Amino acid sequence: MTILRVSGVQKSFGALQVAQDITFDVPQGQALGIIGPNGAGKSTLFNLITGNIDPDQGRIEFLGRDVTKTPPMQRTLMGMGRSFQIPQPFDNISVFENVLVAACFGQNISESAAISQCADILDQTEMMHLANTPASKLSLLERKRLELARAMATHPKLLMLDEIAGGLTDAECLSLIETIKSIHASGVTIIWIEHVLHALTSVVERLLVLDFGKVIAMGEPQKIMESREVQEIYLGIDA
User: Fold this and answer.
1) 61 to 9, 49, 231: CA distances (angstroms)
2) Count of structural domains within the chain
3) pLDDT digit string, tens, across residues 66-102
């Protein structure tokens, strides 16, 4: 089953074309990584998929339904969950309350119905020991984990991660990778934008490479990273 289909999507901001005829599918249960140099259009593609911006042309289907013009909140309720590159928790409430808010509004359920789910999610993301800690007191890794927990609290069928490993030490990154692997192993489909390539390639089954808003390559991670074009454009290597 195809969980997401992006067909001929184009987007321009004035004279700058940031998405050029982007087309790809994501099968249910797969983890897809997205890489590309800064300015390649990766975050724009995420915002097109989640509905934060509308495409000029093309079609986006989620779970077999056309969602090209569907508002972001409705897409969340359908099963799209995402993290943001810079975590933005509610700093003045606890970790548990942050996850509870995400569950209630992301699933349109009552607080009482969400409580047990939130406990499970905090266990899954290794945040239970910080449940009563104000979000303002968290380290960067803990804020990244909270961002992941809030995305999971929406009960996503498709989890979209935006540079969640950025800024972490190698040890912190390895710890977070294990959590993401566990989430993926539970059956959650993942699309992950990341510059930390060893983190990305340890999880994903396919890589999509963007450059100047175009898909220039897509396939198995090892083959993609060995591609001359990818090495020249993304890694800056004269191949």
Assistant:
1) 11, 9, 31
2) 2
3) 999 999 999 999 999 999 989 989 999 999 999 999 9
pLDDT at 239: 41
Let me know whether 68 and 161 are in one domain.
yes
pTM of the model: 0.92
If asked whether residues 188 and 229 sit together in one domain, one would say: yes
Q: What does the alpha-carbon distance between residue 8 and residue 224 come to, in Å, rounded to a whole number? A: 22
160 and 72 share one domain: yes
H helix or E strand, kind and range, residue 222 = helix 221-226
Domain range holding 118?
86-155
Of 155, 171, 190, which residue sits at a domain end?
155
Residues 61 and 100 in one domain: no
Secondary structure of residue 175 in the 3-state scheme: helix
CA distance 159 to 180: 10
Nearest-angstrom CA–CA distance, 201 and 34: 10
Torsion over CA: 112, 118, 119, 120 (sign)? positive
Average pLDDT over residues 174-187: 95
Q: Are 22 and 216 in contact (CB under 8 A)?
A: no
- Burial (CB < 10 A; 0-12, 13-18, 19+), residue 15, is exposed
Q: Coil, strand or helix: which one is 25?
A: strand
Tell me the pLDDT tens digit for each residue of 184-196: 999 999 999 998 8
The pLDDT tens digits for 20-39 are: 999 999 999 999 999 988 88
Identify whether the C-beta of residue 203 lies closer than 8 Å to the C-beta of residue 184: yes
